Amino acid sequence: MNLSGAGKSAAPASARTAALVEFTLPKLLIVPALALIGLFVVFPLVWSVVMSFTNYSMLGVTARKWGFIGLKNYIWVLTDPDFQAAIANSFIFTIVSALIGQALLGLALAVVMRMKGPEGWVGAATKVLKVIAGALVFVAWIIPEVVAGYCWAAAMSRGGLFTAMFGINYNFYVRHPLQAMIIANIWRGTAFSMILFMAALESIPNYIYEAAEVDGATPWQRFRYVTFPLISNALLVDFILITVWTFGLFTLIFTLIGPQMDYMWTLYVYVLATGRMGPPWTGPGPLSTAAAAADIMFVIVLALITGYLYALRRLRRWA
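The chain above was modelled as a monomer; its predicted structure follows.
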């Protein structure tokens, strides 16, 4: 018996088996994740698009007998004054509270946290204050949205902490719901931007700033030519995430101002889907009309993300 020949033939077979396992095992491991994504992301999205072209509803006759109605839901939504007001307020809310409030305030806090303090007891006290300030900002982020919404509603009510500080003798969140939403969202969401920018700033070596300072670069030039190009990726990630989160925000604003459908598109969809309003041809609150409104906002958010990517490319060339 030729044992050496048998060993030689077994070695390639073992190598082929190992290569096959190495090739297939990673793909098999991601199958559960892909299945969950398909079940909870892809399927609802596809079903929402399909449902938006029907008169489907959970209430009334159309709950059992529903059919294709074309673009009626989209036409009704786009011509509804409440939806138009909700879209306008959603853009204002996102731009002011997220892109201006959370992003800029988070960047400013990150820069302050990274700055070196003076020596001695003053520097030690400064470090302690930085830790306390960072902890307070972070606590606001981890508080559940339901709790945060009710806390701000209490603070902005007549006799609450917020109204007492500014001498307001009425329910601020009732008379100025959009401003109340902006304040609450800035307070709660700034921590994410701060943490993201702190991580980006910490990754920049100090010798780069030292070299720029030796070359006579001003603080603005150091930010434009050193800091901004190196944190541009973090800036893009932050803008995309806080835009998506703020556009889709529901719990915080619902607990704060209630189901006012003309102040946020998520509230608009909620009012439609729960049967509080609806086109006359499908009965009260059809889910199909709510699906059409959600699909429109999905397209808008995709357009915003595409715009961010294009703007970042232009800003990189400028920097």
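The chain is about 75% helix and 0% strand.
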